[in-house]
Request: fold
Amino acid sequence: MQSVLYEKLAQETPEEQAILAGNQAVNKKMYTDMTSDFVVQSDKFLKDELIMIRKHPRFIDFPKHTHDFIEMNYVFRGQFRQQVADQKIHLKQGDILLLNQHIEHELAACGREDIVINFIIHPAFFDYILSNFSSGFIQNQMVQFLMNSMFNYDQYAQFLYYPVSGSARIQEIMEQLLIEMMNDSILAKSKIKFLMGLLILELAEQQHQSQQNATQAAEHAFVAEVFRYIENHYKTASLQTLAAQYKQSSYWASKRIKTLTNANFKDLVQEKRLLVAKNLLMYSDLSIQAIAEEVGYENISYFYRLFKKKFNQTPKDFKQQIRKEEI
Reply:
């Protein structure tokens, strides 16, 4: 099916034929009735529809512009370079880019092998989709993007880039969308709406999973750093010092450690100190007083209480037991 789609999409459109014939300027009348700012108008494409799909014209640079709709670019074949606000974006085959109606961008000319599909979407289309997101997605970038685009909260220019060439699920949906784009059946437009809704949900889900994976990686890294810090500084370990490494408060560090390890920082330090003390009692000739000080306890009575609570015998009894076993 990919080859069939490519053969159809590779055919030159009338607009592309005019460009190749020597018309090296974008025909702005095809895109807008405005004579000052270049704002591509949805009325030129959507008419009474909520979604329209078209192939992006090749062979010509597209000048800086905005639009009064949400635009999605999909690279079916080849690549696509553009400047979005102040950022250069290089889309590769299979990639998707969503732009809201407040962002300005300009597009580099596509070559003959570069097939890019533009989706022109009225913001109202996302009303139903947005209502079906669960509360757990409230911080998802896709949800925030849609809310800002639909309700014009602050006219914040925004785009979302999805390098999803490796997602078989996403690519399957895109292929189905392109098939329906070329389909003249009475149900094609309805299918496109359903498929587009499914695509948005899938993109949001992948992003949500990616954010979860990133959060888990950050959590693992934090826990590893806590244990590394205690391993190297158990004698003088301080929650304030650890928190300062992250430029956070002691309360933040304490709460995070408790959440991720189910133990208090003090308990973790104490566990390490007592294990070191036990090893010193077994393999060194240091006095119990010296061992207590070596692991960070100046109060010998306090050390005795902690050790007995941990190992069910005092340091003295433990040391005597070791000596008896050696005889």
